Amino acid sequence: MLQSTPKPQRKSVNTSIDSQLIKDAKALGINISRAAEAGIAKAIAAEKTRRWQEENKEAIQSSNEYVRRNGLPLAKHRLF
């Protein structure tokens, strides 16, 4: 049996958005709330990625340096 995922709780907020953007979105039939939600979700994901990369900067640099010096581990087993 498939389990349904619960709908996210929605919350009304007040925000200021460029009036021309609102006009254009309405003219194109764009759901402004959903578009704003998608933009916020994208910004959150980008910031989480940036923070993870910053927190793991030394490990990433170390790994990249290892590959530069030694090549990819198990590279001889690659089929491409």
From TrEMBL:
Pfam families for the chain: CcdA
Taxonomy, superkingdom: Bacteria
InterPro entries the record matches: Post-segregation_anti-tox_CcdA
Stated name of the protein: Antitoxin CcdA
Protein's organism: Rhizobium loti (Mesorhizobium loti)
UniProt keyword list: Toxin-antitoxin system
